[in-house]
Amino acid sequence: YEKLRRDGLTFDAALRAAITADPDDDTARLVAADFLEEHGDPDRAALVRAQVELARLEAAGRGKDREADDL
């Protein structure tokens, strides 16, 4: 990932900065998941997407316990 640079930052570092700058916005996390998948890390991409979905469910009042029951 380190080879991709823009404005002096690696793409990975830029994504991390975007996530840190606005932790409530899932866009950068989902872009990071796409990036990970496209660069050979599909398991980590799936984890990021699952974390985003879980956070959305919790925000909607459907927390971990209910989702665990559904499995």
Brief sketch in words of this structure:
With 71 residues, this protein is mainly alpha-helical.
Write a structural description.
By secondary structure, this protein is mainly alpha-helical. The protein is 68% helix and 6% strand. The chain is built from four helices and two strands, in the order E-E-H-H-H-H. A two-stranded antiparallel sheet has the order 1-2. Helix 1 (11-21) runs antiparallel to helix 2 and helix 2 packs antiparallel against helix 3. The longest helix has 18 residues, at 42-59. It is flat, with a radius of gyration of 14 Å. The N and C termini lie far apart (35 Å).
Question: Which descriptors would you attach to this protein?
Answer:
single chain; 71 residues; mainly alpha; 2 strands
**What is the residue-averaged pLDDT?**
82
Which band does the percent of strand residues land in? 5-15%
**What's the overall geometry?**
flat
| Helix-and-strand structural type | mainly alpha
Question: Which helices and strands, and how do they pair?
Answer:
Blueprint: E1 5-6, E2 9-10, H1 11-21, H2 27-38, H3 42-59, H4 64-70
Antiparallel strand pairs: 1-2
Helix pairs in contact: 1-2, 2-3
